[in-house]
Amino acid sequence: MKAPALAKLSIPGPIDPYFLQYLQQSGPRPLTKWLHYLTVYSRELGPFRTRPVTFLEIGVFRGGSMPFWRGYFHPESVLVFVDINPDCADLEIEGTHVRIGDQSDPEFLARLVAEFGPFDCILDDGSHVCAHQITSFERLWPHLTDGGLYMVEDTHTSYWKAYGGGYRQQGSFIEYAKDLLDAMHAWYSEQDTAFPFDPRAQSLSSVRVYDSIVAIEKRWQPDPPAPFAASNGALEIDRTWLAKTKAGARDDDTSR
């Protein structure tokens, strides 16, 4: 893309200059993305640029993202790319690793983890089939580092029936992400039968939803969240407040 054409692009939000530079200097391998993804990448992946990371992308297609990410991340990073198409093995370039397998196959994912895990960043741009996205997430999430990021791309397929989606269709990745939101807040549930504690709350730090991307951040937190009070330079943290408040709510409502 020529610089004048690039200047006319309307891309919402701040973008890492690297992405705009790359678009002007890209090689022969096609890179296909939605324009607004560049803003999401800048916000979500920017914190991982300054140190070596282990990055996994599900989906190779024509290999355009390999040089794209190789130039973006720290030169000592481990970059792993996965695709079900055996021909993609020939697209491997220096500084990358390509493995062939099915993202919905737990045994393949286990081998991938054994060889390269744990991962700091995972980007699912694979089949876009909702069931595949969920399987990959559930198998790989335990092998994401503390502070790591898991991104699922092109989640608009959650509204397409051919991919197992549909408006509020159970089993779509968007509905699964809504379930993750509930799990993240399980600390606060006072309805032990309807909404018991979900151990996923201990590792779900945030679930950020963008247009067609869900970004899930992992932070290990074995203990319940605690409020603090600060005054006159003194800080008090009450680690029992949540348990006491929930117990009081149960006592006040015997219908649960």
What does this structure look like?
The protein has 256 residues and is an alpha/beta fold. The chain folds into two domains: 3-222, 3-Layer(aba) Sandwich (Rossmann fold); 225-256, no CATH class. The chain has eight helices and nine strands. The strands form two sheets. It has a seven-stranded mixed β-sheet with strand order 3-2-1-4-5-7-6, with helices on both faces. A two-stranded antiparallel sheet has the order 8-9. Strand 1, helix 4 and strand 2 form a beta-alpha-beta unit. Helix 5 (106-116) packs across helix 6. The protein is globular and about 65 Å long. The N and C termini lie far apart (61 Å).
Provide the fold topology.
Elements: H1 3-7, H2 17-25, H3 37-45, E1 54-58, H4 65-72, E2 78-83, E3 96-100, H5 106-116, E4 119-124, H6 130-140, E5 144-153, H7 173-184, E6 204-210, E7 213-218, E8 228-231, E9 234-237, H8 241-252
Parallel strand pairs: 1-2, 1-4, 2-3, 4-5
Antiparallel strand pairs: 5-7, 6-7, 8-9
Helix pairs in contact: 5-6
Total strand count, please? Answer: 9
Report the CATH superfamily of the largest domain: Vaccinia Virus protein VP39
Return the CATH class of the largest domain.
Alpha Beta
How are the strands ordered across the major sheet? 3-2-1-4-5-7-6
| Mean pLDDT over the full residue set | 91
Annotation field: number of helices: 8
CATH architectural category of the largest domain: 3-Layer(aba) Sandwich
Report how far apart the termini are.
Answer: 61 Å
Q: Write the CATH fold name of the largest domain.
A: Rossmann fold
Class based on secondary structure composition and strand pairing: alpha/beta
Total of domains: 2
Principal-axis shape equals: globular
Helical proportion? 25-40%
What kind of sheet is the major sheet? 7 strands, mixed
Strand content: 15-25%
Rounded to an integer, what's the Rg over CA atoms?
A: 21 Å
Q: Helices and strands, in N-to-C order?
A: HHHEHEEHEHEHEEEEH
> Which regions have little confidence, pLDDT < 50, spanning 5+ residues?
none
